[in-house]
User: Fold these one by one.
Assistant:
Number 1:
Amino acid sequence: MAKRLLFVLGTRPEIIKLAPVIRCARATPGLEAVVVHTGQHRELAAEMFQVFDLRPDHDLAVMEPDQTLFSVSARILDGLARVFQQETVDLVVVQGDTTSAFLGALAGYYSHIPVAHVEAGLRTNDKFSPFPEEMNRRLAGTLADLHFPPTARARANLVREGVADRRILVTGNTVIDALLWALELPHTPSAAIPDLKPGERLVLVTTHRRESFGEPHLRVFRALRELVDRFPEVRLLFPVHPNPNVRAQVGTHLGDHPRIHLCAPLGYLDFLHAMKRSFFLLSDSGGVQEEAPTLKKPVLVLRDVTERPEGLESGALQLVGTDPEKILGAATALLTDPAAYAAMTKNPNPYGDGKASERIIERILAFLGPPG
Ligand code: UD1
Ligand code: UDP
């Protein structure tokens, strides 16, 4: 009998980062992949399922407008309980720091099924930043039997917390596997991505972290407006996350500027196209911090702390937080000083070589033993 891996997919980054692992599992004799989607981010998920040729076996349909962390957590756990009653599973695979990752690990534990955690060991060591992601990742790690940190730094965090060495394998980040896969796919960019006149520069923005809702976001939006006013050659493209706490404020403060282009979240292939076309990015996204160095695009990180210090050390990332002075200072340097720009783009990507999924599946096979 083949060994059955159950993959829990909740939000956008989990779909992107587990798609290459699922592909690799499906191509491996002796393994079967069962895919559960929580039903979160349905509008964002549909394109990504299509891009990566995925059809979830179970859809928990948990999403409700303005859901709270309490309510969505309760529905995810309840939905997973039903799936575990129906499926025979040898290993649960979760990814990253989302609530679905933590609850997928918890559901595995409640069912006495071992858990593998992809993108394990990243830490800010600040319980509330990012919130609730820092604790989601820690809790998933506490429940996991196999840990796949992307870097040596992430591995060292796990070792420091007492995880046994034999349970850990450094793999690189699977987002690079996904990125290299997606870059090969044919694609016609959508009209949401603005045309640039000669000499114009595109700045791509994303922000959706819960700790930035409210006043911190207002400071960021003030800085963005000031940036396009100071630099007439800058066009800003801002795919706005559907979380209503983000959407409402963005529209009010940035909706009326001729060189600020607000749009719905872009499909993955469109977003990669926009990244390639951009001069630099301003973002609080984790995945973007990992992808951009491969495309040689600097990222000004709209957060006070990052769990991705390797990118800071390689120069590819710079922390600017939500302080308008810092944001404008760093953006101005990139737009006016070629040396500052070169310093952020010269080093290789510390997050992986595109082979993380193969390493993960090989280790899982060894862990589960031969098909019985
Ligand atoms: C979630 C993750 C976050 C991850 C992010 C990736 C948690 C707690 N948060 O944040 O770690 O970085 O996804 O994008 O796991 N909404 C929609 N449509 C969507 C998505 C969201 O309408 O496609 C709205 C809904 O009103 C929903 C709210 O946004 O109630 C919050 O969505 P939710 O999935 O709970 O959290 P995110 O902020 O998207
Ligand atoms: N992304 C996308 N469309 C967008 C914005 C982001 O496809 O409009 C991709 C991006 O390339 C990255 C992932 O979504 O791979 C990051 O997701 P998100 O920022 O939601 O989550 P995080 O990485 O912060 O957990």
Number 2:
Amino acid sequence: MKYTKIFLSAAMLLALGACSKQAPAPAVIPQPASIEQKGSAYQIPDAPMINIAAPVPDSERLMGAITEVWPQAALKPDEGADISLSISPSLEGVTSPEGYTLSVTDQGVAIEALDGAGLFYGLQTLAQMNREGQGLIPGVVIVDEPRMEYRGLMLDISRHYRDADFIKKQIDAMAQLKLNRLHLHLTDAAGWRIEIKKYPRLTEYAAWRPEETWKEWGENGHRYCNATDSTAHGGFLTQDEVRDIVAYAADRYITVIPEIEMPSHSGEVLAAYPELGCVPVADGQDFCVGNEETYEFLQDVIDEVIDLFPSHYIHIGGDEAGKQGWRNCTRCQRLMRQKGLKDVDELQSYLITRMEEYVNSKGRDIIGWDEIMEGGLAPNATVMSWRGTEGGIRAAHGGHKAIMSPGAYCYLDGYQDAPSTQPQAIGGYLPLEKVYSYNPVPDTLASDVRPMIIGVQGNLWCEYIPTAEHAEYMIYPRLLAIAEIGWTPQEERSWADFKPRAEKFNEYLASQGYHVFDLATEVGNRPEATQPVDHLAKGKTVTYNRRWWRQYPCNGDSTLVDGQRGGWNYNDYRWQGFLSHMDVTIDLEKVEPITYIGATFMQICGPDVYRPESVVISVSKDGESYEELKRIDMERVVDDEVTFTEFAWEGQSEARYVRYQADASSGVLFTDELIIK
Ligand code: ACM
Ligand code: ZN
């Protein structure tokens, strides 16, 4: 933070004397780019006078934002107001229409900006300072503007439907955090969530299922039902509700971006309109790309969506297509021959490019998940990078815009604390500090590529999030970190400075009825992961009698003997994966007395990660003849827990070679260290 303190003159101290309280230093999220402490504090009265100097665009919207904080505020159309807003054609230090300056003197608070958005964000900063100081605003000059133009939150309302009130409540919090894009994941196999007049079965059937939760729905075979069935669960946004949400968001300078999934994650559409699937056998999730009716349907839907959402971007999904049905479909195969498409990736690219042309013809652009690059990226597409950052960076190198939402930092559906203390989540371990550590535009990127990375987004997928309260619990406080990543210059960000601000903001959200995760209860990372472990095998040579799984090599040969224990999840580069079978031998270099040999395995059944059902530990002095020290058999228990189980031998022995074999009937084994004492 550029935070310049200057010594107060005697005259200033006298002026301050009018205020008996000390104004607190500004503690704002996201941290403004520059705060200079300068001049007098100012006490905003309960019924402040507001001057909105003409010409200010959106003055009604701005007055709306003011009365949310000061319900008794009144307009005073000349000098001498407590808060004055004005537009300037140029402002030193501000280049973005979302930027602003905020100056406090003993005469009042003045906010200037290039556009209405900047004034709105200046007001958000002022509102936070007002809260902090109970109306006493410290004497400061703030010059502030966002680091990135796109600062988003994605809500998945397909897996569990969330209504308009829930969405508006999140919009309220987003606005205070200066987030400006709400991406609604409106369609997925678990339920279609937007009224489309031309296709009534989407909302009479595809929006409903017999089971309340996504998990039960999956366990019972992914069935749908009629809206009128007494056991129907689900719902959808009517077009009137959509218009209302879009307008509510616009009043808070937030654009709502609709996502209509294609060509996959569309099982609910195929259930309602089976003719849109492949022949002779439909893939349960993928549209038939070779069927002209698919384009008719998608274009009709896009027509209605474009009418409802003024957003420049329409998100067309594009992720995780199985593509299996296409390989065996007479129509898809015919299209591939006709168009000379060499594989199913190019077939997907054909659909995306054709839909992009359609969206472009309406004056809009598409965003797609990073899989839309497979088979060739549509010419004007913006890529939303989720499987890491490589997709976004590759797109940026190719001259495309990219929005970063990598799973490891931005997926708000992962555990935010020790799994045993949390409601079941999809997996992962993403505490607030890890979200905050993310830098979407590292200095290592070429300078011409950096501007193509236009934003950052937190994604809340809701497979394991059945209630509104749970959804908020996963969003807050992690969304605070996303907001600061997107707004504050990287060099002004510091975890130590952010953490107490986040605690305060989180408490405030709780006081406003948000169901936040309470940072005061945070347990933190797995204790074993927080300090290195020393043991006989550390740094010794490991022979892999069976290779690790190539998707999770971790640090290769050294992983199991590097003295580093793993954290709550296997994607922290501490855990090595094995496809059902692990078999390694460690050479201690000389015969040693041994009292312990053990390894810990993680189990999290959702992603097929299991502890072994059998472990054999043997030792040898010469590397030829082995003595079996211990054999452990354990029945598989499938449950919702994340567990860590140690499989170990303890006793007295002497050996130079230690062999450790672990086997599971299916799935992946993950272990972090083979400890020998
Ligand atoms: C995604 O998480 N499938 C975009
Ligand atoms: Zn087909």
